[in-house]
Amino acid sequence: MPTAARLVAAICLGIVGFILSEQIKPLMPEGTDFGSFSLVNMVLGLLAGWFVMGRRAGRGVVHGINNGVAGVFILILWGLGVQASYEMFRLAMRNRYDGALEALSAIIEIGAEYAVIIATIPIAITCVVGALVAGLAAEYAARHWR
User: Fold this and answer.
1) Is the pTM of this model over 0.70?
2) How many domains does the chain have?
3) What DSSP string runs through 53-112?
4) Those residues with Cβ within 8 angstroms of residue 137's Cβ, 6 or more apart along the chain or in another chain
5) Which domain, by its residues, includes 71?
6) Helix/strand/coil percent split, the chain, to 5
7) pLDDT single digits (tens) 55-78
8) 3-state SS assignment for residue 2
9) Angle at which helices 61-92 and 100-118 pack, to 10 degrees?
């Protein structure tokens, strides 16, 4: 059921996803083709906000902050998973893998490499601030707009 909390959480995490995408671009190797990187991560933020954060809003300020942290964590996990899967698919189309199991295990390896690349202080600060703002905004929306 659509609620204001779901909408606010989705918008907030969509913005966080876009900001994180723009911060990640300079960290990646030179010559990386990003294509629709920011758009995909923004959509993942919208989905995480709507389905993860929005349904758990309205339980109090502390739960709202925890909800924001969980939402950003899910956004990062989904983002790493989707981007690593895309990279694996791109490499698989160039016949880099001998079998399906090797290709599937490459998703985890590529995701871990991406996680190491984005593990920086500015990204962490953006995640913390985004989690606080998104969690408190969703909590406010749940309390005031029924």
Assistant:
1) yes
2) 1
3) IGGG-SS-HHHHHHHHHHHHHHHHHHHHHHHHHHHHHHHHTTT--SSHHHHHHHHHHHHH
4) 8, 9, 12
5) 4-144
6) 80, 0, 20
7) 889 899 999 999 999 999 999 999
8) coil
9) 130
